[in-house]
Amino acid sequence: MSDARYVGVMTETQSYVEYLWSQSSWDVPLFHAHHVLNLLQRLLFATLSMVANAGILHFHWTTPPHPKFTVLRKSRIIIRTHLISGTINVCLPIVAFCSANPKVSTPIMWITVGFDVIHLMTVIAQTPNVNGQRLLTVPAYQFIALVKVVSVAGLIHALLDDSLYELERLEWLWTVWANHQTYAWVRVWMVLLYFCQAARESRYTLAVLIAGTIGAGQAYGFSIMIFLIVWLIGFNLWLRRKTYTLAARFAESKHTGDEQRELNLEMSAMLQYFHEAHHGLYHDVRYKHQPEVVQKILFETGYLKVVQDARGKDTSQLAPLRTIPDDVQARCVFESVDFDNSGSLDLLELAQIFITNGVSTETTQKMCEEAFGKFDINNDGLIDLNEFTMAFKPYWAYQFAEVYVILGDAPQLMKNVINVPLHSTAMGCPFGAAHSIPLDFGSEVISWTDLVQSKNGKSLDRALSRVRSKLKPAVR
Known about the structure:
Blueprint: H1 16-22, H2 33-62, H3 73-98, H4 102-126, E1 132-133, H5 134-160, H6 166-180, H7 182-195, H8 203-220, H9 223-252, H10 257-272, E2 276-277, H11 291-300, E3 304-308, E4 314-318, H12 326-337, E5 344-345, H13 347-356, H14 361-375, E6 383-384, H15 385-391, H16 393-409, H17 448-451, H18 457-475
Antiparallel strand pairs: 1-2, 3-4, 5-6
Helix pairs in contact: 2-7, 3-4, 3-6, 4-5, 4-6, 5-6, 5-8, 5-9, 6-8, 7-8, 8-9, 9-10, 9-18, 10-13, 11-12, 12-16, 13-14
Protein backbone atom coordinates (compact mmCIF):
# COMPACT_ATOMS: atom_id res chain seq x y z
CA MET A 1 0.00 0.00 0.00
CA SER A 2 0.99 3.60 -0.45
CA ASP A 3 2.61 5.46 2.41
CA ALA A 4 2.08 9.17 3.14
CA ARG A 5 5.83 9.54 3.57
CA TYR A 6 6.27 9.29 -0.19
CA VAL A 7 3.92 12.13 -1.07
CA GLY A 8 5.90 14.94 -2.66
CA VAL A 9 9.25 13.44 -1.67
CA MET A 10 10.27 12.21 -5.10
CA THR A 11 9.47 15.08 -7.44
CA GLU A 12 8.79 14.86 -11.13
CA THR A 13 12.24 16.28 -11.82
CA GLN A 14 14.06 13.72 -9.66
CA SER A 15 15.39 10.37 -10.73
CA TYR A 16 15.56 7.40 -8.36
CA VAL A 17 19.28 7.94 -7.86
CA GLU A 18 18.82 11.66 -7.17
CA TYR A 19 16.11 10.90 -4.61
CA LEU A 20 18.28 8.46 -2.69
CA TRP A 21 21.15 10.94 -2.65
CA SER A 22 19.03 13.90 -1.57
CA GLN A 23 17.57 11.97 1.35
CA SER A 24 21.01 11.25 2.80
CA SER A 25 21.95 13.93 5.31
CA TRP A 26 25.68 14.04 5.91
CA ASP A 27 25.24 16.67 8.65
CA VAL A 28 23.09 14.58 10.98
CA PRO A 29 24.67 11.10 10.81
CA LEU A 30 22.92 9.65 13.88
CA PHE A 31 19.43 10.46 12.60
CA HIS A 32 20.11 9.29 9.08
CA ALA A 33 22.67 6.56 9.82
CA HIS A 34 20.57 3.74 8.42
CA HIS A 35 19.65 5.64 5.27
CA VAL A 36 23.22 6.74 4.62
CA LEU A 37 24.52 3.22 5.14
CA ASN A 38 21.86 1.85 2.81
CA LEU A 39 22.78 4.41 0.16
CA LEU A 40 26.49 3.66 0.40
CA GLN A 41 25.84 -0.08 0.15
CA ARG A 42 23.69 0.37 -2.93
CA LEU A 43 26.21 2.65 -4.60
CA LEU A 44 29.07 0.26 -3.90
CA PHE A 45 27.02 -2.78 -4.94
CA ALA A 46 25.81 -1.16 -8.16
CA THR A 47 29.25 0.18 -9.10
CA LEU A 48 31.08 -3.11 -8.59
CA SER A 49 28.28 -5.03 -10.31
CA MET A 50 28.41 -2.81 -13.38
CA VAL A 51 32.20 -3.09 -13.59
CA ALA A 52 31.94 -6.88 -13.34
CA ASN A 53 29.13 -6.97 -15.89
CA ALA A 54 31.21 -5.04 -18.41
CA GLY A 55 33.82 -7.80 -18.40
CA ILE A 56 31.25 -10.60 -18.25
CA LEU A 57 29.18 -9.31 -21.17
CA HIS A 58 32.30 -8.78 -23.27
CA PHE A 59 33.41 -12.35 -22.54
CA HIS A 60 30.06 -13.98 -23.28
CA TRP A 61 29.45 -12.00 -26.48
CA THR A 62 32.92 -12.76 -27.84
CA THR A 63 33.48 -16.32 -26.56
CA PRO A 64 31.52 -19.42 -27.65
CA PRO A 65 29.53 -21.05 -24.82
CA HIS A 66 30.56 -24.32 -23.24
CA PRO A 67 29.93 -27.17 -25.71
CA LYS A 68 27.39 -28.84 -23.45
CA PHE A 69 25.13 -25.92 -24.42
CA THR A 70 25.76 -26.23 -28.16
CA VAL A 71 25.38 -29.93 -29.04
CA LEU A 72 21.57 -29.92 -29.04
CA ARG A 73 19.61 -27.38 -31.10
CA LYS A 74 17.29 -26.71 -28.15
CA SER A 75 20.29 -26.00 -25.92
CA ARG A 76 21.72 -23.55 -28.46
CA ILE A 77 18.44 -21.62 -28.57
CA ILE A 78 18.20 -21.53 -24.77
CA ILE A 79 21.76 -20.31 -24.20
CA ARG A 80 21.41 -17.54 -26.81
CA THR A 81 18.08 -16.45 -25.36
CA HIS A 82 19.66 -16.51 -21.90
CA LEU A 83 22.46 -14.22 -23.06
CA ILE A 84 20.20 -11.72 -24.86
CA SER A 85 17.61 -11.45 -22.08
CA GLY A 86 20.31 -11.30 -19.40
CA THR A 87 22.12 -8.48 -21.20
CA ILE A 88 18.92 -6.43 -21.49
CA ASN A 89 18.12 -6.94 -17.80
CA VAL A 90 21.60 -5.80 -16.82
CA CYS A 91 21.50 -2.55 -18.82
CA LEU A 92 17.89 -1.30 -19.07
CA PRO A 93 17.13 -0.87 -15.33
CA ILE A 94 20.14 1.46 -15.02
CA VAL A 95 18.40 3.81 -17.45
CA ALA A 96 15.20 3.68 -15.36
CA PHE A 97 17.09 4.43 -12.15
CA CYS A 98 18.72 7.49 -13.70
CA SER A 99 15.62 8.84 -15.45
CA ALA A 100 13.43 11.50 -13.83
CA ASN A 101 10.62 10.92 -16.32
CA PRO A 102 8.02 8.23 -15.43
CA LYS A 103 7.13 8.06 -19.12
CA VAL A 104 10.62 6.63 -19.63
CA SER A 105 11.06 4.54 -16.47
CA THR A 106 7.63 2.86 -16.51
CA PRO A 107 7.92 1.36 -20.03
CA ILE A 108 11.44 0.23 -19.15
CA MET A 109 10.06 -1.60 -16.12
CA TRP A 110 7.51 -3.40 -18.29
CA ILE A 111 10.22 -4.37 -20.79
CA THR A 112 12.38 -5.60 -17.92
CA VAL A 113 9.51 -7.73 -16.64
CA GLY A 114 9.07 -9.36 -20.04
CA PHE A 115 12.71 -10.17 -20.54
CA ASP A 116 13.12 -11.26 -16.92
CA VAL A 117 10.36 -13.82 -17.39
CA ILE A 118 12.17 -15.09 -20.49
CA HIS A 119 15.47 -15.14 -18.60
CA LEU A 120 13.81 -17.00 -15.73
CA MET A 121 12.64 -19.72 -18.11
CA THR A 122 16.18 -20.18 -19.45
CA VAL A 123 17.54 -20.33 -15.89
CA ILE A 124 15.09 -23.09 -14.99
CA ALA A 125 15.98 -25.00 -18.17
CA GLN A 126 19.73 -24.79 -17.56
CA THR A 127 19.83 -25.30 -13.78
CA PRO A 128 20.06 -29.14 -13.98
CA ASN A 129 23.22 -28.72 -16.09
CA VAL A 130 25.19 -26.33 -13.88
CA ASN A 131 28.78 -26.95 -12.82
CA GLY A 132 30.22 -27.21 -9.33
CA GLN A 133 29.20 -29.63 -6.61
CA ARG A 134 25.62 -29.89 -7.71
CA LEU A 135 24.12 -30.93 -4.39
CA LEU A 136 24.79 -27.25 -3.56
CA THR A 137 24.83 -25.39 -6.88
CA VAL A 138 21.57 -26.84 -8.23
CA PRO A 139 19.47 -25.83 -5.19
CA ALA A 140 21.32 -22.50 -5.03
CA TYR A 141 20.30 -21.66 -8.59
CA GLN A 142 16.80 -22.95 -7.91
CA PHE A 143 16.57 -20.55 -4.98
CA ILE A 144 17.90 -17.65 -7.06
CA ALA A 145 15.17 -18.43 -9.61
CA LEU A 146 12.57 -18.50 -6.82
CA VAL A 147 13.69 -15.07 -5.59
CA LYS A 148 13.47 -13.86 -9.19
CA VAL A 149 9.85 -15.07 -9.36
CA VAL A 150 8.96 -13.19 -6.17
CA SER A 151 10.70 -10.01 -7.36
CA VAL A 152 9.09 -10.02 -10.80
CA ALA A 153 5.67 -10.73 -9.29
CA GLY A 154 6.13 -7.79 -6.92
CA LEU A 155 7.15 -5.49 -9.76
CA ILE A 156 4.14 -6.53 -11.88
CA HIS A 157 1.81 -5.88 -8.94
CA ALA A 158 3.37 -2.46 -8.38
CA LEU A 159 3.03 -1.53 -12.04
CA LEU A 160 -0.65 -2.55 -12.09
CA ASP A 161 -1.52 -0.73 -8.85
CA ASP A 162 -2.27 2.89 -9.76
CA SER A 163 -2.30 3.90 -6.09
CA LEU A 164 1.44 3.32 -5.78
CA TYR A 165 4.02 6.00 -6.42
CA GLU A 166 6.87 5.70 -8.90
CA LEU A 167 9.33 5.35 -6.03
CA GLU A 168 7.65 2.17 -4.83
CA ARG A 169 7.77 0.69 -8.32
CA LEU A 170 11.44 1.57 -8.63
CA GLU A 171 12.11 -0.14 -5.31
CA TRP A 172 10.66 -3.34 -6.76
CA LEU A 173 12.76 -2.84 -9.88
CA TRP A 174 15.79 -2.60 -7.59
CA THR A 175 15.02 -6.01 -6.07
CA VAL A 176 14.76 -7.50 -9.57
CA TRP A 177 18.04 -5.93 -10.71
CA ALA A 178 19.92 -6.70 -7.47
CA ASN A 179 19.02 -10.39 -7.58
CA HIS A 180 20.02 -10.50 -11.25
CA GLN A 181 23.54 -9.43 -10.24
CA THR A 182 24.13 -12.85 -8.71
CA TYR A 183 25.69 -13.92 -12.01
CA ALA A 184 28.14 -11.01 -11.90
CA TRP A 185 29.19 -11.79 -8.34
CA VAL A 186 29.78 -15.44 -9.19
CA ARG A 187 32.50 -14.27 -11.59
CA VAL A 188 33.87 -11.74 -9.08
CA TRP A 189 34.39 -14.48 -6.52
CA MET A 190 35.75 -16.90 -9.11
CA VAL A 191 38.42 -14.34 -10.03
CA LEU A 192 39.19 -13.63 -6.37
CA LEU A 193 39.52 -17.30 -5.44
CA TYR A 194 41.70 -17.89 -8.50
CA PHE A 195 43.90 -14.93 -7.58
CA CYS A 196 44.28 -16.27 -4.04
CA GLN A 197 44.82 -19.81 -5.38
CA ALA A 198 42.22 -20.93 -2.85
CA ALA A 199 39.56 -23.65 -2.93
CA ARG A 200 41.03 -25.10 -6.12
CA GLU A 201 38.54 -27.98 -6.32
CA SER A 202 35.43 -26.07 -5.28
CA ARG A 203 35.79 -22.50 -6.53
CA TYR A 204 32.63 -22.46 -8.59
CA THR A 205 30.55 -23.96 -5.78
CA LEU A 206 31.78 -21.43 -3.24
CA ALA A 207 31.34 -18.57 -5.70
CA VAL A 208 27.70 -19.52 -6.40
CA LEU A 209 26.81 -19.78 -2.70
CA ILE A 210 28.47 -16.48 -1.77
CA ALA A 211 27.07 -14.66 -4.81
CA GLY A 212 23.57 -15.96 -4.07
CA THR A 213 23.65 -14.43 -0.60
CA ILE A 214 25.03 -11.15 -1.99
CA GLY A 215 22.47 -10.68 -4.77
CA ALA A 216 19.38 -11.91 -2.95
CA GLY A 217 20.62 -10.35 0.30
CA GLN A 218 20.97 -6.94 -1.34
CA ALA A 219 17.41 -7.30 -2.63
CA TYR A 220 15.70 -8.49 0.57
CA GLY A 221 18.17 -8.38 3.45
CA PHE A 222 19.48 -10.95 5.90
CA SER A 223 16.31 -13.03 6.21
CA ILE A 224 16.68 -14.27 2.64
CA MET A 225 19.92 -16.02 3.60
CA ILE A 226 18.05 -18.06 6.20
CA PHE A 227 15.59 -19.18 3.54
CA LEU A 228 18.54 -20.17 1.32
CA ILE A 229 19.92 -22.40 4.08
CA VAL A 230 16.50 -24.01 4.56
CA TRP A 231 16.22 -24.58 0.80
CA LEU A 232 19.67 -26.23 0.67
CA ILE A 233 18.78 -28.55 3.55
CA GLY A 234 15.45 -29.48 1.97
CA PHE A 235 17.04 -30.25 -1.40
CA ASN A 236 19.70 -32.44 0.18
CA LEU A 237 17.12 -34.40 2.16
CA TRP A 238 15.26 -35.04 -1.10
CA LEU A 239 18.51 -35.98 -2.87
CA ARG A 240 19.48 -38.38 -0.08
CA ARG A 241 16.10 -40.11 -0.31
CA LYS A 242 16.48 -40.41 -4.08
CA THR A 243 20.00 -41.81 -3.71
CA TYR A 244 18.90 -44.49 -1.25
CA THR A 245 16.03 -45.47 -3.52
CA LEU A 246 18.41 -45.84 -6.46
CA ALA A 247 20.75 -47.99 -4.36
CA ALA A 248 17.80 -50.14 -3.35
CA ARG A 249 16.86 -50.67 -7.00
CA PHE A 250 20.30 -52.16 -7.56
CA ALA A 251 19.97 -54.49 -4.60
CA GLU A 252 16.38 -55.59 -5.05
CA SER A 253 16.22 -57.59 -8.28
CA LYS A 254 18.13 -58.77 -11.32
CA HIS A 255 18.17 -56.55 -14.37
CA THR A 256 18.46 -57.09 -18.10
CA GLY A 257 21.43 -55.65 -19.96
CA ASP A 258 19.49 -52.58 -21.06
CA GLU A 259 18.07 -52.02 -17.58
CA GLN A 260 21.52 -52.38 -16.05
CA ARG A 261 23.00 -49.83 -18.45
CA GLU A 262 20.18 -47.43 -17.65
CA LEU A 263 20.77 -47.87 -13.92
CA ASN A 264 24.51 -47.40 -14.36
CA LEU A 265 23.86 -44.14 -16.18
CA GLU A 266 21.48 -42.97 -13.46
CA MET A 267 23.99 -43.92 -10.78
CA SER A 268 26.83 -42.07 -12.49
CA ALA A 269 24.64 -38.98 -12.77
CA MET A 270 23.61 -39.31 -9.12
CA LEU A 271 27.21 -39.58 -7.96
CA GLN A 272 28.06 -36.46 -9.93
CA TYR A 273 25.84 -34.47 -7.56
CA PHE A 274 28.43 -35.19 -4.85
CA HIS A 275 31.41 -34.40 -7.03
CA GLU A 276 32.74 -31.10 -8.38
CA ALA A 277 31.84 -30.69 -12.07
CA HIS A 278 34.35 -28.63 -14.05
CA HIS A 279 34.20 -27.00 -17.49
CA GLY A 280 37.17 -29.12 -18.58
CA LEU A 281 37.21 -32.91 -18.23
CA TYR A 282 40.90 -32.94 -17.39
CA HIS A 283 40.39 -30.84 -14.26
CA ASP A 284 38.27 -33.67 -12.87
CA VAL A 285 40.15 -36.00 -10.53
CA ARG A 286 38.76 -39.05 -12.36
CA TYR A 287 40.49 -37.91 -15.55
CA LYS A 288 43.68 -36.76 -13.84
CA HIS A 289 45.88 -39.32 -15.64
CA GLN A 290 44.38 -38.74 -19.08
CA PRO A 291 46.55 -35.72 -20.04
CA GLU A 292 49.33 -38.31 -20.22
CA VAL A 293 47.46 -39.97 -23.10
CA VAL A 294 47.20 -36.64 -24.92
CA GLN A 295 50.88 -35.93 -24.31
CA LYS A 296 51.92 -39.28 -25.74
CA ILE A 297 49.87 -38.78 -28.93
CA LEU A 298 51.29 -35.29 -29.46
CA PHE A 299 54.80 -36.66 -29.00
CA GLU A 300 54.20 -39.44 -31.52
CA THR A 301 52.78 -37.01 -34.10
CA GLY A 302 55.60 -34.49 -33.66
CA TYR A 303 53.60 -31.70 -32.04
CA LEU A 304 55.42 -32.13 -28.75
CA LYS A 305 59.18 -32.33 -28.45
CA VAL A 306 61.64 -32.83 -25.64
CA VAL A 307 64.17 -30.01 -25.43
CA GLN A 308 66.68 -28.83 -22.85
CA ASP A 309 65.99 -25.67 -20.92
CA ALA A 310 68.59 -23.11 -19.83
CA ARG A 311 69.60 -25.33 -16.90
CA GLY A 312 70.13 -28.34 -19.12
CA LYS A 313 67.02 -30.16 -17.91
CA ASP A 314 64.70 -31.97 -20.29
CA THR A 315 61.36 -30.26 -20.74
CA SER A 316 58.48 -30.55 -23.20
CA GLN A 317 57.84 -28.02 -25.94
CA LEU A 318 54.35 -27.85 -27.45
CA ALA A 319 53.60 -26.69 -30.97
CA PRO A 320 51.26 -23.67 -31.16
CA LEU A 321 47.63 -24.69 -30.75
CA ARG A 322 46.60 -23.29 -34.15
CA THR A 323 49.12 -25.56 -35.91
CA ILE A 324 47.71 -28.81 -34.50
CA PRO A 325 45.24 -30.32 -37.05
CA ASP A 326 41.65 -31.09 -36.12
CA ASP A 327 42.11 -34.83 -36.62
CA VAL A 328 44.97 -34.88 -34.09
CA GLN A 329 42.98 -32.85 -31.58
CA ALA A 330 39.96 -35.13 -31.95
CA ARG A 331 42.14 -38.24 -31.60
CA CYS A 332 43.73 -36.88 -28.42
CA VAL A 333 40.38 -36.33 -26.74
CA PHE A 334 38.86 -39.55 -28.09
CA GLU A 335 41.66 -41.81 -26.85
CA SER A 336 41.81 -40.09 -23.48
CA VAL A 337 38.13 -40.85 -22.85
CA ASP A 338 38.30 -44.35 -24.36
CA PHE A 339 39.31 -45.92 -21.05
CA ASP A 340 39.30 -49.54 -22.24
CA ASN A 341 41.35 -48.72 -25.39
CA SER A 342 38.76 -50.50 -27.56
CA GLY A 343 38.85 -47.88 -30.32
CA SER A 344 35.18 -47.02 -29.79
CA LEU A 345 32.94 -45.43 -27.17
CA ASP A 346 29.96 -47.25 -25.78
CA LEU A 347 26.97 -45.51 -24.25
CA LEU A 348 28.47 -45.27 -20.75
CA GLU A 349 31.84 -43.93 -21.90
CA LEU A 350 30.17 -41.29 -24.05
CA ALA A 351 27.58 -40.41 -21.42
CA GLN A 352 30.23 -40.07 -18.73
CA ILE A 353 31.91 -37.27 -20.70
CA PHE A 354 28.74 -35.21 -20.43
CA ILE A 355 27.88 -36.24 -16.88
CA THR A 356 31.36 -35.25 -15.68
CA ASN A 357 30.70 -31.79 -17.13
CA GLY A 358 27.57 -31.52 -14.99
CA VAL A 359 25.04 -32.40 -17.69
CA SER A 360 21.78 -33.84 -16.36
CA THR A 361 20.73 -37.42 -17.08
CA GLU A 362 17.88 -36.27 -19.34
CA THR A 363 20.10 -34.00 -21.45
CA THR A 364 22.84 -36.64 -21.55
CA GLN A 365 20.37 -39.19 -22.92
CA LYS A 366 19.23 -36.77 -25.63
CA MET A 367 22.82 -35.96 -26.61
CA CYS A 368 23.69 -39.65 -26.81
CA GLU A 369 20.53 -40.43 -28.79
CA GLU A 370 21.45 -37.73 -31.30
CA ALA A 371 25.01 -39.03 -31.53
CA PHE A 372 24.03 -42.66 -32.09
CA GLY A 373 21.03 -41.76 -34.27
CA LYS A 374 22.79 -39.38 -36.66
CA PHE A 375 26.46 -40.32 -36.58
CA ASP A 376 26.65 -44.07 -35.85
CA ILE A 377 27.14 -44.77 -39.55
CA ASN A 378 27.57 -48.54 -39.30
CA ASN A 379 24.81 -48.91 -36.67
CA ASP A 380 26.98 -51.00 -34.36
CA GLY A 381 25.93 -49.16 -31.19
CA LEU A 382 29.43 -47.71 -30.79
CA ILE A 383 31.01 -44.38 -31.70
CA ASP A 384 34.42 -44.72 -33.35
CA LEU A 385 37.01 -41.98 -33.88
CA ASN A 386 35.64 -40.79 -37.23
CA GLU A 387 32.08 -40.66 -35.92
CA PHE A 388 33.24 -38.87 -32.78
CA THR A 389 35.14 -36.32 -34.88
CA MET A 390 32.05 -35.52 -36.94
CA ALA A 391 29.49 -35.53 -34.13
CA PHE A 392 31.26 -33.66 -31.36
CA LYS A 393 33.58 -31.03 -32.79
CA PRO A 394 32.47 -28.41 -30.22
CA TYR A 395 33.30 -30.88 -27.45
CA TRP A 396 36.68 -32.19 -28.56
CA ALA A 397 37.86 -28.73 -29.68
CA TYR A 398 36.97 -27.26 -26.29
CA GLN A 399 38.43 -30.12 -24.27
CA PHE A 400 41.64 -30.20 -26.30
CA ALA A 401 42.14 -26.49 -25.68
CA GLU A 402 41.71 -27.16 -21.96
CA VAL A 403 44.24 -29.99 -21.82
CA TYR A 404 46.62 -27.99 -24.04
CA VAL A 405 46.74 -25.33 -21.32
CA ILE A 406 47.38 -28.00 -18.67
CA LEU A 407 50.29 -29.44 -20.66
CA GLY A 408 51.69 -25.98 -21.32
CA ASP A 409 51.53 -25.04 -17.64
CA ALA A 410 53.39 -28.16 -16.53
CA PRO A 411 56.16 -28.79 -19.10
CA GLN A 412 58.29 -30.81 -16.69
CA LEU A 413 55.65 -32.38 -14.49
CA MET A 414 54.58 -35.03 -17.01
CA LYS A 415 57.56 -35.25 -19.35
CA ASN A 416 58.43 -38.79 -18.21
CA VAL A 417 55.11 -40.12 -19.47
CA ILE A 418 56.50 -40.13 -23.01
CA ASN A 419 58.25 -43.40 -22.18
CA VAL A 420 55.34 -44.83 -20.20
CA PRO A 421 52.83 -47.18 -21.90
CA LEU A 422 49.18 -46.23 -22.00
CA HIS A 423 46.87 -47.42 -19.27
CA SER A 424 46.07 -51.09 -19.44
CA THR A 425 42.54 -52.34 -19.66
CA ALA A 426 42.92 -53.62 -16.12
CA MET A 427 43.01 -50.01 -14.94
CA GLY A 428 39.82 -49.67 -16.90
CA CYS A 429 37.08 -47.11 -17.01
CA PRO A 430 35.70 -46.44 -13.54
CA PHE A 431 32.31 -46.03 -15.19
CA GLY A 432 32.39 -49.18 -17.33
CA ALA A 433 29.32 -51.32 -17.83
CA ALA A 434 31.09 -54.25 -16.17
CA HIS A 435 30.51 -52.66 -12.76
CA SER A 436 27.23 -53.59 -11.16
CA ILE A 437 27.51 -50.19 -9.49
CA PRO A 438 29.75 -47.65 -11.26
CA LEU A 439 32.30 -46.61 -8.66
CA ASP A 440 33.36 -43.02 -8.22
CA PHE A 441 37.03 -43.61 -7.44
CA GLY A 442 37.94 -39.94 -7.21
CA SER A 443 35.18 -38.68 -4.96
CA GLU A 444 36.00 -38.17 -1.31
CA VAL A 445 32.51 -36.89 -0.59
CA ILE A 446 30.46 -40.05 -0.91
CA SER A 447 31.13 -43.71 -1.59
CA TRP A 448 28.94 -46.76 -1.70
CA THR A 449 30.76 -48.08 1.35
CA ASP A 450 29.39 -45.12 3.28
CA LEU A 451 25.90 -45.78 1.98
CA VAL A 452 25.73 -49.25 3.49
CA GLN A 453 27.23 -48.38 6.86
CA SER A 454 25.07 -49.06 9.89
CA LYS A 455 24.20 -45.37 10.34
CA ASN A 456 22.40 -45.49 7.00
CA GLY A 457 20.82 -48.89 7.52
CA LYS A 458 17.36 -47.56 8.37
CA SER A 459 17.33 -45.27 5.35
CA LEU A 460 18.27 -48.14 3.04
CA ASP A 461 15.65 -50.39 4.64
CA ARG A 462 12.96 -47.78 4.05
CA ALA A 463 14.14 -47.34 0.47
CA LEU A 464 14.03 -51.11 -0.10
CA SER A 465 10.50 -51.22 1.29
CA ARG A 466 9.39 -48.49 -1.10
CA VAL A 467 10.97 -50.29 -4.06
CA ARG A 468 9.39 -53.62 -3.09
CA SER A 469 5.97 -52.02 -2.74
CA LYS A 470 6.28 -50.64 -6.28
CA LEU A 471 7.63 -53.88 -7.72
CA LYS A 472 4.91 -56.16 -6.31
CA PRO A 473 2.00 -54.61 -8.27
CA ALA A 474 4.10 -54.77 -11.41
CA VAL A 475 4.80 -58.49 -10.87
CA ARG A 476 1.13 -59.27 -10.35
